[in-house]
Amino acid sequence: MNERIYFDYLVIGGEHDGRCYNGPLTDCLEVNSIYVPMAKYCSPHFPSEVLVQKKISYNVRHYHRYDGKCFLIATNENPEDDEIEQAITKMQPRPVN
After folding, report:
1. Number of other CB atoms surrounding residue 66 within 10 Å
2. Is 70 helix (H, G, I), strand (E, B) or coil?
3. What is the pTM of this model?
4. Does 55 fall in a domain?
5. What pLDDT, on a 0 to 100 scale, did the predictor assign at position 44?
6. Helix, strand, or coil here: 93?
7. pLDDT digits (tens, 9 = 90+) for 38-70
8. From 24-28, 42-46, 73-77, the region with the lowest mean pLDDT
9. What share of the chain in percent tops pLDDT 90?
10. CA-to-CA dists, residue 82 to 28, 34, 56, 77, angstroms
11. For a Cys staple, 8 with which of 54, 62, 75, 93, CB 3.0–4.6 Å?
12. With DSSP H G I counted as helix, E B as strand and the rest as coil, what are the percentages for the chain, rounded to 5?
């Protein structure tokens, strides 16, 4: 049986700051943008514009805590350890190990 293992990714920074996403193990987490442009009005005689939802990529790194637990942090910034600890305490993602 081919079973996929999913992990929790805690996003720090950017428009998805403080959110958790669940997915297979990867080095680059891609999620849909929160901000979607509004559809433009069109008349029945002209075809409407196709809107493609923008994807945002975050680099994933392993964060090892003092208690030995490892978390997957998705970020494009360089957050401080205190900021990461606060986000882990608030969102409570599942550790990798």
Report:
1. 7
2. strand
3. 0.83
4. yes
5. 80
6. coil
7. 777 777 887 777 778 899 999 999 999 999 999
8. 42-46
9. 70
10. 23, 26, 25, 14
11. 93
12. 10, 35, 55
Angle at 73 between CA 70 and CA 31, to 5 degrees: 135
The answer to whether residue 12 is domain-embedded is yes
Amino acid occupying residue 90: K
Q: Over 80: is that where the pLDDT of 17 sits? A: yes
pLDDT of residue 47: 77
C-alpha count within 13 angstroms, C-beta hemisphere, residue 76: 10
Q: Which domain holds residue 20?
A: 6-34+50-91
- Token pair for residue 94? 């599942």
Extract the tokens encoding 31: 């999620």
Tokens, residue 40: 């433009």
| Structural tokens at position 28 | 């680059």
Q: Is residue 60 part of a domain?
A: yes
Q: How many Å separate Cα 10 from the centre of its chain?
A: 7
